[in-house]
What we know:
By secondary structure, this protein is an alpha+beta fold.
Amino acid sequence: MAITEFSAALNQVATERGISPEQVLFSIKQAIIAAFRKDNPGVVTEDDELTIEMNPNDGSVKVIKDGKDVTPAGFGRIATQTAKQVILQKVRETEKEVIIEEYKAKIGSIVNAVIFRADSGLVIVDLGKTQGIMPPHEQIPTENYRLNQRIKVLIKEIQTTPRGEEIIVSRADPNFVKELFSIEVPEINSGVVKIESVAREAGSRTKIAVSSSDAHIDPVGSCVGQKGVRVQTIIKELGSEKIDIVTFSADTEKYIAQSLSPATVTMVVLDEKTKTATISVPEDQLSLAIGKEGQNVRLAAKLTGWKIDIKGSEKIIANEDAIEKNEKK
């Protein structure tokens, strides 16, 4: 390694990693000692202490044992190659750390990605500078992922694994829907309209509760858009997942009633102690309030944080169970 090349590389690595050249040299020396022990088993034992004298300008090396120079002939080439490997490794580590830090700042935001590989239930996506992993539970169950397919993903978290730090992305997380609305609805991006809560069963249905800080701006209307264009754009991105948008209210009774949309609620009785809401709806609205397999009431409960008991629901559930049993026959 030429003098200028060695010293330039040394200083570059030290600067990029925010450490001193002495610390980089220490790593190089440790690697050279390991290389010396491996290539010269007859010269030293495991108990022998070795030190390395290295010229920081030209990278020349001496191996010292018990105060004596035991550097073999031709070892300079091995030492040079080892130094190169250490420096390259440090550069790669630095580059990876910089990329990870960049994506840590993007946690909770949506980015464009291209599917790099999809097998064994795991989807690997190309994020541009690096790759992200979308585990099965972060995928929309109704979607099929294909090689080179362009998709939007949520940067969910950075996970530490035996292979190092990995970027976990998601399309099933409720925050994915929340961020899609933030992108599509200017009033959310400006802070006038706020998404208060999201409840989602990915691939099937999502409920969101929205509020407005401006009495002249309808939060639901803002999210739906003129002729439904805004919400339809999001539904298309989600593969026709149903979306219910309801108005958030500080009045709990009113909020819970709204959460059961599209059903009409006639009465809400709250039990603050058990945080249970007993709901009454017209008989012809009962199935709508409960939803298929209880989905509507289940999502309403997630959205509001209240347990919801709908009067007369037992009869509907019993009928659904009977229908399901007949279908199986």
